[in-house]
Each structure stands twice: as structure tokens, then as C-alpha cells.
Write a structure and sequence with these properties.
Layout: E1 9-15, E2 36-41, E3 44-48, H1 54-64, E4 71-75, E5 99-104, H2 108-118, E6 135-140, E7 145-148, E8 151-157, E9 165-171, E10 174-179, H3 195-206, E11 212-216, H4 221-224, H5 235-244, E12 249-253, H6 261-274, E13 281-284, E14 290-293
Parallel strand pairs: 3-4, 4-5, 5-6, 10-11, 11-12, 12-13
Antiparallel strand pairs: 1-2, 1-14, 2-3, 7-8, 8-9, 9-10
Helix pairs in contact: 5-6
């Protein structure tokens, strides 16, 4: 266990894609695995979502802790397949000495367990969830505010079909917001008292002055016109929201499966042009790369 504020908080990307894994030469620089982010902060190992990126992360954790047990927390934003499909391949879950705590909302203890078990039924997978020997605890969160060790955590419901949340983690080195699926839109284009407007206002306050914001930026403006209501972000709107909320570092995430590496370079360039003249730093989530929050001055 590290002393508070004495070690950096490290965010590492293991899966950055939305929808479906897209391996191949056209996505090798950015990555083709679906949503999975690792956070090491204040002595905690936290995983955000269990997309296909959970498989390589699990192998890395198993190698690192080959001589000792590991305790970790897995936060699930929602149960769409690209956010849970890596769980059957998560090596640490097959060791009884490890402790894996899975957290979610809206009946997660039953519904999340049923969903995870469903994708591991015999027509789809050779090993059932009940056969996993790991010490797995699935908990239903009753409050939007909770604790993970010394880290204060908060959740916010977002604009995406079904029950879906984003998470904000307050570490000793700064705040991290993770909103992998969310459809932002200009408030002046919404009915003032509509559900969408209410959610958008809450999301803006939720991410306000975050040190790092990892957020769904799937579509260009042109693409978004034919995907309104699908629950995913338009790049221009994401930059606008990040600037309005005075976010410090925006990380573009949940890349469209149809966007190759060159296309993603273009989206990053577009985002930086939109942020020109502000203090907002923008980067592209890429598999294997990390964002580091250094200890704050005492």
C-alpha cells in the first residue's frame, strides 16, 4: 500500500474501441480491443469495464502477481457486450487466491451476474461462471457515491440506451472521469425540461474541472447526423462540453470500429483545432499507452 500522494496515479488503456473488436493492420497503432482501462492509484487496482481488452490486462496481472494474491475492483458501466465480453478470458478470475470485486448499478447482484453467466453458457463458452474458482463478489451499488479504499468514487447516469453510468474517481493526485458511452448534444438544441437536457446538465457538472476525462467521442459531425439517438458522442460536442466544464485533459475514447488509424489521427487533429486558444489538452486513447497524474505538491 502506497502512502497517499507519494506515488503517481497511472491510467493505462487496454481496450479503446466501441462495438466490436477490430484487430488487423489498419488499427494496430490505436488498437482494436473493446473498452477496458486500468487505474493504479492510492494502493488500489481498479479496472473500468470488461471489454476484450480485459484479456491482455488479465494476463499481465497474472504475470505480475504470479507469487502472490491480488485484490482488485472491476467497475462496470453497463452490460452491452463490448463492455463485458472479455470477462470469460480474465485469467485472475480462475485463481481462488485472488479477490475480485465487481460493482454495478440497478440490480447488479442479480442482473449483472445473470448477464455475465449468460455469455458463458454452454452454447457460447466451455466454462460456466459458477465453475470459476476465483473469489468473485458481485455487489449492487445503492448510492451514487461510494469508496474504493482511500479513493472516493461517484457515478452519474448518462445518455445511452438502457441503464448506463459514468464514474469519477477522486485520487490523491487528481480526479479521473470515465464516460465511455454518452450522447452529448448542445443544450440550446434541446427542450429545456427534457430528460436529455437534464442528463446533459448533470454530466457537465459531473466532469467539471476533472484532471482527466476519458469519454465517448465516436462520431464526426457528418456521421452523427445519421446516428442521433444511438447513445454515442459527436467529437465536436465532446470538445465543447469539455471546454465548458473546464476539464484539464480530454482523452478521446470508444473509437468507432470503422475508423482506422489514419482516420483517428484526423479526429485528434480536428479536436485540437476546436480547442485552439484554450488550456484544454487533448489526446487519443491508444492501447498500451498511459496517462500519469503525478503527486500533488505538499
Amino acid at each position: 500500500m502506497h502512502e497517499t500522494g507519494q506515488s503517481p496515479a497511472v491510467i493505462k488503456f487496454w481496450g479503446v474501441r466501441g462495438g466490436i473488436p477490430t484487430p488487423g493492420p489498419e488499427t494496430v497503432r490505436v488498437g482494436g480491443n473493446t473498452s477496458c482501462v486500468e487505474i493504479r492509484a492510492d494502493g488500489e487496482l481498479i479496472i473500468l469495464d470488461a471489454g476484450s481488452g480485459l484479456r491482455p490486462l488479465g494476463r499481465a496481472i497474472a504475470a505480475e502477481f504470479s507469487e502472490s494474491p491480488v485484490s482488485l475492483t472491476l467497475l462496470i458501466t453497463h452490460t452491452h457486450w463490448d463492455h463485458i465480453q472479455g470477462f470469460p478470458f480474465f485469467v485472475p478470475a480462475y485463481s481462488p487466491r485472488n479477490h475480485i470485486r465487481i460493482l454495478g448499478f440497478e440490480g447488479a447482484r442479480n442482473d449483472l451476474q445473470a448477464t455475465l453467466a449468460g455469455q458463458m453458457e454452454s452454447p457460447y463458452f466451455p466454462i460456466a461462471l459458477a465453475q470459476m474458482p476465483g473469489n468473485i463478489v458481485i455487489e449492487e451499488l445503492k448510492s451514487l457515491r461510494f469508496e474504493i479504499g482511500r479513493i472516493s468514487a461517484e457515478a452519474c447516469h448518462v445518455n445511452h440506451p438502457g441503464v448506463c453510468v459514468g464514474y469519477r474517481l477522486k485520487t490523491s493526485n487528481g480526479s479521473i472521469c470515465y464516460i465511455p458511452d454518452h450522447e452529448s448534444a448542445p443544450l440550446d438544441a434541446m427542450e429545456p425540461d427534457s430528460v436529455s437536457a437534464t442528463i446533459e446538465k448533470k454530466v457537465i457538472e459531473f466532469i467539471r474541472e476533472a484532471d482527466v476525462l476519458i469519454i465517448d467521442s465516436q462520431y464526426t459531425t457528418e456521421e452523427y447526423r445519421s446516428h442521433v439517438g444511438w447513445g454515442h458522442g459527436c467529437l465536436d460536442d465532446v470538445v465543447r462540453v469539455a471546454r465548458a466544464a473546464r476539464v484539464r485533459h480530454l482523452v478521446l475514447f470508444h473509437h468507432d470500429p470503422g475508423h482506422d488509424d489514419d482516420f483517428m489521427d484526423g479526429m485528434l487533429a480536428r479536436a485540437r483545432t476546436l480547442a485552439n486558444g484554450s488550456d484544454l489538452h487533448i489526446s487519443l486513447a491508444k492501447e498500451g499507452e498511459s496517462v500519469v497524474l503525478k503527486p500533488m505538491p505538499l
